[in-house]
Design brief:
- Strand 1, helix 1 and strand 2 form a beta-alpha-beta unit.
- The chain is globular.
- It has a domain of about 230 residues: Jelly Rolls (Sandwich), CATH 2.60.120.
- The strands form 4 sheets. The protein has a 6-stranded mixed sheet. A 5-stranded antiparallel sheet has the order 8-5-11-7-9, with no helix packed on it.
- It has 7 helices and 15 strands.
- About 20% of the residues lie in helices and about 15% in strands.
- By secondary structure, it is an alpha+beta fold.
- Helix 2 packs antiparallel against helix 3.
- About 45% of the residues are buried.
- The structure holds 2-oxoglutaric acid and fe (ii) ion.
- Fe (ii) ion binds next to loops.
Amino acid sequence: MEQLPARNINHIWEIRQDLERVGYSIVDALDSKESMEIFLKTMKDIENVCPGWDQKDTTTWTEENILATNCGFVDYNNGLTHSDSVWTIRGHHNILTLFSNLYNCHRDNLIVSFDTLGIRYPPEIVDSELDPYQVDPHVDQRFENSFVEPYQAIYCITSSIDREDGGLVVYPYSHKLHGLELQKQLKTKPNIDFIVYPKQFFEYYPEIKPLKLSLIAGQVVLWDSRLLHSSLPISPDRNRNEIYSSENPMLFSRMVAYICYADKRKCNKDIIDKRVEAFKEGYGTNHMPLRPRFIKTHADEYPRSNSVKLSLVPIEETNNGCICS
Ligand SMILES: O=C(O)CCC(=O)C(=O)O
Ligand SMILES: [Fe+2]
């Protein structure tokens, strides 16, 4: 199965069609100049937020120095959640345009989750005792909710081109199977948001196949929250020349920002209030902007982003809204 072509950010009908038909879409979001700026800013931010981590000295690239994220998955939400680079990505004009076009709403009606960065080091420099980070095939949305909750997304801060580079794997068309029937068939527990599909799924549905995406820095991948997906570690067979170097810094490991936006008008007032508190207290969330699970981070211990303007005015009275730049 071929990967879908990357879409122009303004071709929203193609993006919508990919999402509806296949379950994911790849979008050229930032040009190479801007994506390089974001990359450099992010590296600087990691240095600011993670004392001891030095971008020029790979011996400092340890799990400990990066505040418990070689994986950066939501449960390891950390000080980077509210860092300047992550907010710059979330609040980038093109990203806001993309999501507001997708939901057919004004950008001020968008609400974002407080996810973090996913950072994965090349195996040559991580402690070999650590498990390679990988995520088994799963969906992040309970079977009881049969509609698309958010479109989930990652912004690629670095490129991950080949299979050896690790990164996101999607299972095209699987979003059509999500629901109570599948829950019954797979005998999974009720009301679980992170559902790892058992092996039998692939026996029942042999037509559902994994597709490791080839992505370049500056692209965004969107997927339907009912789509099965997984993530591969960086392989030890990866070409060592491609490791971070001053000539080719964007090939430094795998680095993504998770950005899930939803239409705020679907969010109840209590949740908005809790999110405002969560923002002030430096909490992160999972991928669900409309029904977030709050996660304590280290954000309050480190410099906070200057790029967020937080409006505390109730949702009905403003179009400046909650938590978006
Ligand atoms: O590729 C990754 O980092 C994990 C993606 C994932 O499972 C998610 O964002 O929900
Ligand atoms: Fe996921």
